[in-house]
Amino acid sequence: MRVARRSTDRKDPPQAVETPSTPDRTHCPPDEKVRALASGELSDPSIEEHVRECSWCSAEYRDHQRDLESNRFIKRSTYGLYVVILAIIVVEVLRSCHR
Fold first, then answer.
1. Which domain holds residue 62?
2. What is the mean pLDDT of the chain?
3. What is the average pLDDT across 12-26?
């Protein structure tokens, strides 16, 4: 299999060229390892190379990265909501103290 492009940036997932790969995925790493690679928790050159070369694993890697980005967005949004709620509470408490 040929790699369309190689990337060293974790934000830019490796792109595998669509070729007939083993449909039974006997040589693919476990999903947990692909997920750990996508999150940056794992740095294994053999798995990185496999993800670049296997279209199935490359698609899984991209899916895991999208999920991680979505989770980060939700966490940031929740934090922002807490800050707004806290600010409203503080304003209301201060307003009630000045009456």
1. 3-74
2. 80
3. 55
Residue 34 tokens, joined: 């692909």
Mean pLDDT of 11-15: 51
3-class SS letters over the chain: CCEEECCCCCCCCCEECCCCCCCCCCCCCCHHHHHHHHHCCCCCHHHHHHHHHCHHHHHHHHHHHHHHHHHHHHHHHHHHHHHHHHHHHHHHHHHHHCC
Whether 35 is in a domain gets the answer yes
Confidence at residue 16, expressed as pLDDT on a 0 to 100 scale: 47
Residues 6+ apart with CB under 8 A from 70: none
Q: Can you read off the two tokens belonging to residue 79?
A: 């934090």
Q: Specify if 97 maps to a domain.
A: no
Give the whole-angstrom CA distance, residue 51 versus residue 37. 9
Amino acid (one-letter) located at 5: R
